[in-house]
Amino acid sequence: MIFKNNGIIISNEPIIEDFVYLMKINEKNIADIAKPGQFLEIKTGSVPLLRKPISIFEVDKVAETISILYQVKGPGTKNLSELKANQQLDIIGPLGTGFTVKKFDNKCLLIGGGIGIAPLYDLGLKLKESGNEIEIVLGFSSKDTSYALDYFSKLGTLTVATMDGSLGIKGTVEAILSNYELNTFDKAYACGPEPMLKYLKTLEDKVNLELSLEAYMGCGLGACLSCVCKMTDGTYKRVCKEGPVFKSKEVSFDE
Ligand SMILES: Cc1cc2nc3c(=O)[nH]c(=O)nc-3n(C[C@H](O)[C@H](O)[C@H](O)COP(=O)(O)OP(=O)(O)OC[C@H]3O[C@@H](n4cnc5c(N)ncnc54)[C@H](O)[C@@H]3O)c2cc1C
Ligand code: FES
C-alpha cells in the first residue's frame, strides 16, 4: 500500500549546518508498513515542481514516526532544510522495494558512501533485531563532511574511510574492503555513488550483494520511465518500482 499524507514535522535539525539534516516526521501509516531500503517522494515546496526521492533513515513504529537524513544539494533539499517543527510535509510512500532482512548464519556487511548511508541505518537496526552480527564500512570525503557515525557505531563494528585521510583509513571504501575476507559474510548491502557501486559489482562473486541504486526520478511511481537502469540480461527495470534495491548480479553498469 502507498500513502499520500501530510506528515507533521517533529524536528528538522542540522547535523552539519547547511549540509546534512535529520528530519523526524509524525507519520503513522508509513511507519507501520515501511521496509528498510524504501523511499519517499517529498513535495519540498512550489519550486521545484517535482517531488524529491529521499530514503527512509529510521522508522519508529511505537512513536509512529519516520526520519530522513538528507544532504542539501539544490533548491528542493534547501527548501526541506528550512522547514520547522509543526509544519506539514506532503509525502508519498513508502515506495520501491526493500533490502532482504532475515537471520543469517554469519555476519552481514553494510557499505555506504556519502549520503548513500541513509537507507542503511534502518536496515542495520532491523538486521540487528533479527539477531545478526553486523560490520559497517562507510566512506566520506573528509572528517568535516562525515556524519551519523554515532548512529552506525551502535549497530556493530564501524570502519570509516575518508578521501583525504582526515578520519579513518585514507581512500575510498575500497581501501578498507581490499583487506576483507568477503566470503566470511553471508550478505552485503550497499548504497552510495555509482563509482562505488561499480567497484562493488566486481566483488559480487565473493559475497551475496544487494545494491540500492540512485537514478533521476520524474514521478517515483513507475509511470514516467525516467529512472530505468540496465540489467545484465539486457532488459531495463525502473529503479523507483522494481528497485531501488537490486541483487548486484542483476544490474549492469555497462553503457
Ligand atoms: C531512491 C533515492 C533515494 C534517495 N535518498 C536520499 C536520501 O536519503 N538523502 C538525500 O540527501 N538524498 C537522497 N537522494 C537524492 C535526492 O533525491 C537528491 O539529492 C535531490 O533530489 C536533489 O534535489 P535538489 O532540488 O535539492 O537539487 P538539484 O539541484 O535539483 O539536484 C542536485 C542533484 O540531485 C540529483 N537529483 C535531482 N533531482 C532528482 C530526482 N528527482 N531524482 C533523483 N535524483 C535527483 C541529481 O543528481 C542532481 O544533479 C535519493 C535519490 C534516490 C533516487
Ligand atoms: S521515476 Fe517515473 S518511472 Fe521511475
State the main characteristics.
single chain, 255 residues, alpha/beta, Elongation Factor Tu (Ef-tu), domain 3, Rossmann fold, 2 domains, 7-stranded antiparallel sheet, binds flavin-adenine dinucleotide, binds FE2/S2 (inorganic) cluster
Count of helical segments?
6
Percent of residues in helices comes to: 10-25%
Nearest-integer average pLDDT: 97
Broad shape: globular
Distance between the termini: 34 Å
Q: Per CATH, what is the topology of the largest domain?
A: Rossmann fold
Strand content is 35-45%
Q: Which hetero ligands occur in this complex?
A: flavin-adenine dinucleotide, FE2/S2 (inorganic) cluster
Number of domains: 2
Radius of gyration: 17 Å
State the fourth-level CATH superfamily of the largest domain.
Nucleotide-binding domain of ferredoxin-NADP reductase (FNR) module
Poorly predicted residue ranges? none
The strand order across the widest sheet is 4-3-7-1-2-6-5
The number of strands is: 16
By CATH reckoning, the class of the largest domain would read Alpha Beta
**Could you say which structural class the secondary elements and strand pairing correspond to?**
alpha/beta
Largest sheet: 7 strands, antiparallel
Q: What's the architecture of the largest domain in CATH terms?
A: 3-Layer(aba) Sandwich
SSE order in H/E notation?
EEHEEEEHEEHEHEEHEHEEEE
